[in-house]
């Protein structure tokens, strides 16, 4: 494990703005403290360190938010973000679930990242990101506070995602005026991107219509060590060792990384041929060590004749979308906006 | 997230403070000085306070820490995670520094210094005083001498090592606080106690309100006087737990009624209140009860039944105790405050706690037990309990003192007690408290759900701040409701309170004991009534948010004392005793700890200390 840290850190610093470097390095450091070698997780310290923000029914920059308890049994909360309207600049509390008025209103169900173990819907980084998506896509965003590993392994996160999807689909107030249907998109970063795929699968299986999938640096993997994993191990904030830890924490005990949750187009995966899968927008960061798996995912979709657009951001690292201080951020936000807007 | 000052560029590498040239830079400087000076805005939004000018230094610390951790490998890292106490992660620079110093202790080793590690062995709680009920089996007790380890009951979501840090307070179940053989106390007592441990229960002093009764001198202030100068919080957290049709209609009706009241359209309000009654019946669970209390409060307001009959003391005590049992809020409050007090009393030989919220003294046995088990022996413990007068002639503060004295005797802690009866905390003067020099005796001031009442009278809070400073406390622990129920506009207050109490009532639904739950609802119902139906000096439930309290304490010349990850963790584990902890959550907020239900913070514990001033007096606004 004797890597030349100085070289790595300097390389790293050259490709991201300093405050981004500080932010992501801080996460990396904190996360190192939280993962224990025996596979357990220091949840208390994790919750202590995580920077959270409350929901806010007072609009800020044109967006207000509130939390809803979607499932009491699992304490499944979600945070809903809506645009404040000119007519209702300060929404009355009784009007939080007021019906959407536009012809077409995209509803984005968002799954935050954190490698299945970290973060929450009310983490500051994700609250900020979801707020941006509202304005960007003129959408209602629902961020799911899914159960996390290692306390809750596969398939809990997918179950929670599915529960949220059913809930959203059955809200009359989220139906677009045009066709009295809820126009649903699934979006997520890192583990959230992985959840998007699997929830979309369930949706398709049960005939629930999802208009599109947005996967930002989605978390996929496999038993094999790919070229990008070897080349980029430890270079840009992420190590193979930590990736392995998170899979061990999420996957059922005894399973390896070719489990279909981790490797959907691998030896235990299922083909999507003949299935009406939503169109996908997949964003891959060129300095992300798991990019080979993400690219393989895109290939898997293409092979099954599914509509997919790949956005390969060559000089981007993980987490580039957390701060609006780089070009990758703006490019991706534009693409997301177009992706969601194209159904209007 | 407000971006009012659009002229401040989002350029991370520009330095906002200390601009090179005058003119524009000066203007920016002044503006920036008013908000957090030179903070990187992008990181601030994400919860991290890093000055732009410090960014490079922070980056360097991160690099150093990474290097050191790499060398230390797993063992060194695990120490940082499990042993080290972390404080205020928002202040990245200080947090990183404290971790670095774990690896490189400063040459002048200061065990109580900025490193933030808890020093001194606090010992652990043994259980002879903690009585029988099943709850105690859920605790981990680690008896240092006998290696007597009971197993901790794990809820599904607790994934942590069985042994807690030895240095911390442990949670104690409520029922078991007082030992089983507590006798009723003799009525007569004098200060010359014959007890060899010198337990000293002074006769109760009845405090004459020096400025007359409050209704005479303090006429209801014009609304502006009470909250002017203190910026109100503009965050309105809402969690909807009830999306059923009836729930929404009920909320609509309540809001409409409140609006009618605000507009003084009392006929409409009256009609709506009746409608609410019908709607509430068809509603289930928490929402029905909340609606009923709010409807009643609205009715009182409409019919001008302003003043509430003050509760008989024994009844209010009973309600308070049931609330203590039904849900974790009071326990969290006591626990976190005690942890801060314990740490502040490090190494002190004589300590004095002044409790503004004495009630039945439920907070103190745990602290006394922790002090008893301190390495090097317990300090001499003095307690001054302040409470309102009782309506019968019972000397309830005295009774509480006696119970605590008995406990103290059992656990061999030198104990002194004095009860003070006061209509208002503002009636207190430092001279009444027999304060000893701070080199001799360390003082802690404690207030749980009391301070906000002072906001009902102009000048009261400032008087109390001033008196507290005269006490020269090591620490001031404050627990308050996390809500703004003191806004100027009735409808806003109503809305806030509706959400706050809906969430609170919802959390009560999981209570095991029906009686505890019902009594707790009555307890909270009294607060609801006060917030909605009362005005002026009668409206004492003037809750304010952490942001607002921070401003008040800051303006009054106090600086924050941070609560750390050890308190956080122990408080989180305490929650597991309630319904497996489901739904409850502890959050850290710039050194303060908040307890919430379904991500909605409901109460906040903060700690303060008089700021070190260059001049003797501080200017107090308002």
What does this protein look like?
The complex is a heterodimer of chains A (344) and B (622). Chain A has 344 residues and is α/β, with parallel strands linked by helices. Chain A has helices at residues 5-15, 18-34, 43-49, 124-137, 156-169, 191-205, 227-232, 240-250, 291-303, 327-341; strands at residues 63-71, 76-83, 106-111, 140-144, 183-189, 212-216, 279-285, 308-313. Chain A has one domain: Rossmann fold (3-Layer(aba) Sandwich), CATH 3.40.50.1820. Chain A is built from 10 helices and 8 strands. An 8-stranded mixed sheet of chain A has the order 1-2-4-3-5-6-7-8, with helices on both faces. In chain A, α5 packs across α6 (191-205). The radius of gyration of chain A is 19 Å and the shape is globular. The mean pLDDT of chain A is 94. Among the domains of chain B are: 243-303, Up-down Bundle (Methane Monooxygenase Hydroxylase, Chain G, domain 1); 313-482 and 543-610, 3-Layer(aba) Sandwich (Rossmann fold). Chain B contains 18 helices and 14 strands. Residues 1-34, 108-167, 171-199 and 203-231 of chain B have low confidence and may be disordered. At the A-B interface, α1, α2, α3, β1 and α4 of A face α2, α3, β5, α7 and α15 of B.
Write the layout of secondary structure elements.
The complex is a heterodimer of chains A (344) and B (622).
Chain A: H1 5-15, H2 18-34, H3 43-49, E1 63-71, E2 76-83, E3 106-111, H4 124-137, E4 140-144, H5 156-169, E5 183-189, H6 191-205, E6 212-216, H7 227-232, H8 240-250, E7 279-285, H9 291-303, E8 308-313, H10 327-341
Parallel strand pairs in A: 3-4, 3-5, 5-6, 6-7, 7-8
Antiparallel strand pairs in A: 1-2, 2-4
Chain B: H1 24-34, H2 41-45, H3 55-82, H4 92-103, E1 142-143, E2 148-149, E3 200-201, E4 205-206, H5 214-217, H6 223-227, E5 239-240, H7 245-262, H8 266-281, H9 285-302, H10 313-326, H11 329-344, E6 350-355, H12 364-372, E7 380-387, H13 396-410, E8 415-421, E9 442-448, H14 460-470, E10 475-481, H15 490-508, H16 514-533, H17 546-555, E11 558-561, H18 565-575, E12 584-589, E13 592-597, E14 600-610
Helix pairs in contact in B: 3-4, 7-8, 7-9, 7-15, 8-9, 9-15, 9-16, 10-16, 11-12, 11-18, 15-16
Family (chain A): Belongs to the 'GDXG' lipolytic enzyme family.
InterPro entries (chain A): AB_hydrolase_3 (IPR013094), AB_hydrolase_fold (IPR029058), Carboxylest/Gibb_receptor (IPR050466), Lipase_GDXG_HIS_AS (IPR002168), Lipase_GDXG_put_SER_AS (IPR033140)
Subcellular location (chain A): Nucleus
